[in-house]
Automatic annotation (TrEMBL):
UniProt cross-references to InterPro entries, sorted A to Z: FERM_2, FERM_central, FERM_domain, IRS_PTB, MyoVII_FERM_C2, PH-like_dom_sf, Unconventional_Myosin_ATPase
Cited Pfam families: IRS
GO CC field: cytoplasm
Annotated transmembrane regions: none
Record domain FERM: where: 1-147
Protein name: FERM domain-containing protein
Alphabetical list of SUPFAM superfamilies matching this protein: PH domain-like, Second domain of FERM
Length: 156
């Protein structure tokens, strides 16, 4: 049952007996909690994760030798994160304010970070480029709308 409870990349972090003890201790700590309280407690924890609310895309990047060929890209309210597919480590997060251009097609997604002269490009092969493009467009439109509202409040 341990394989059903613990992500595969974390199983070997500690022994099976240590996992069992930790799970039982956590379970006993929250014994008697109502289902509603359990949901709220869960959300209060995961809300702090940097990938909370993300849409994840598996892509093959072809431009940066510092990153693995296969990457996970997470898009959320913080920006666009590049994640190592095996370790799940966040390699970098690009806030929307640093993304200057992007494009997509049936087989690709391209993004420019920084300006066109001194920026860097990330070229990705994916069949979901149009979804990534749409999501990025939505987040940046929201950011620009919020910035515009804040400016008009300051001017008044």
């Amino acid at each position: 049952m341990l394989r059903e409870l613990i992500p595969a990349d974390l199983v070997k972090v500690q022994s099976a007996n240590d996992w069992k003890r930790a799970i039982v201790a956590a379970y006993n700590q929250d014994a008697g909690m109502s289902p509603e309280d359990a949901k709220i407690t869960f959300l209060k924890i995961v809300y702090r994760w940097p990938t909370f609310g993300s849409a994840f895309f598996e892509v093959k990047q072809t431009t940066d030798p510092n990153y693995p060929e296969m990457l996970l890209i997470a898009i959320n309210k913080h920006g666009v994160s590049l994640i190592h597919p095996n370790s799940k480590e966040i390699l970098v997060t690009h806030p929307f304010t640093r993304i200057s251009n992007w494009s997509s097609g049936n087989t690709y997604f391209h993004m420019t970070i920084g300006n066109l002269v001194r920026g860097s490009k990330l070229l990705c092969e994916t069949s979901l480029g149009y979804k990534m493009d749409d999501l990025l467009t939505s987040y940046i439109s929201l950011m620009l709308t919020n910035m515009s509202k804040q400016r008009s409040i300051r001017i008044k």
